[in-house]
Amino acid sequence: MRSEWISIEASGGGRYDAYLSLPPAGHGPGLLLFQEIFGVNRHIRAVADQYALDGFVVLAPDLFWRDAPRVELGYAGAERERAMALLKAADPADLAADIQTSLAALRARPERDGRVGAFGFCLGGRLAYVAAATADVDAASCYYGGGIHDQLGIASGVRCPIQFHYGTRDSHIPLPAVDRVKAAFSGRDVEIHLYDAEHGFNCWERASYHAPSAALAHARTLAHFARTLF
Predict the structure, then answer these.
(1) Burial state string for 205-228 with b = 16 or more CB within 10 A and e = fewer than 16
(2) Active-site residue, 122 included
């Protein structure tokens, strides 16, 4: 497995970095990995490496490059406050543009062999949903995507198989919000999985980490992408 930071040309000018992790075989289907609000930090890079070991070419773009290039933040105190400020400062139109340019960069990689999926966590889970609805991805998996239930107007644009992973004890995404997502996708090619866990249950560096839920969600996500991308 080999990993490196690469540079991508932004649609409105300028360049931003993205973390690229390649599988041991050197090629495979593509996965676009969207960060939480804490940047492409140690956890997100480890997730990229994890899925690269599973056989995928993984690209994790730096989404806060306009205000704080390559920022890496922790999950509590002043660093969490800074992460929230960066989220508030991020323009949804800029994030949407970065989805498109990152997807194009991943598709252009010579190591990318096959289809391309998108996944992410929290902010990244929402962006994986946006990618499924507005970009040409072949599958998506969205972990506790904050705000998806407020963007169901674009649900009809989702043409690919998609998963949603939610914690039943998530204080940021109440179960009635999950029910709205279920209703919007009723009768469609969608999986909605619930876990007895809190927000951020996949991140082993957070107090809310829940190993059984993370392992099960990883298995389901791998099966989903194995069916749809290889």
Answers:
(1) ebebbbeebbeebbeebbebbeeb
(2) yes
Residues 6+ away with beta carbon under 8 Å from 128: 32, 34, 118, 119, 120, 140, 141, 142, 145
Active-site entry in 49, 62, 138, 170 = 170
Identified catalytic residue from 43, 49, 98, 122:
122
pLDDT of residue 189: 83
Does residue 199 carry a catalytic annotation? Answer: yes
- Residue 21's Cα: distance from chain center in Å? 15
What does R_g of the chain's alpha carbons equal in angstroms? Answer: 16
For residues 121 and 51, what is the distance between their CA atoms, to the nearest angstrom?
14
Structure tokens at 114: 């096959």
pTM assigned to the model? 0.97
Determine contact, residues 198/172, Cβ cutoff 8 Å. no
The pLDDT of residue 102 is 98
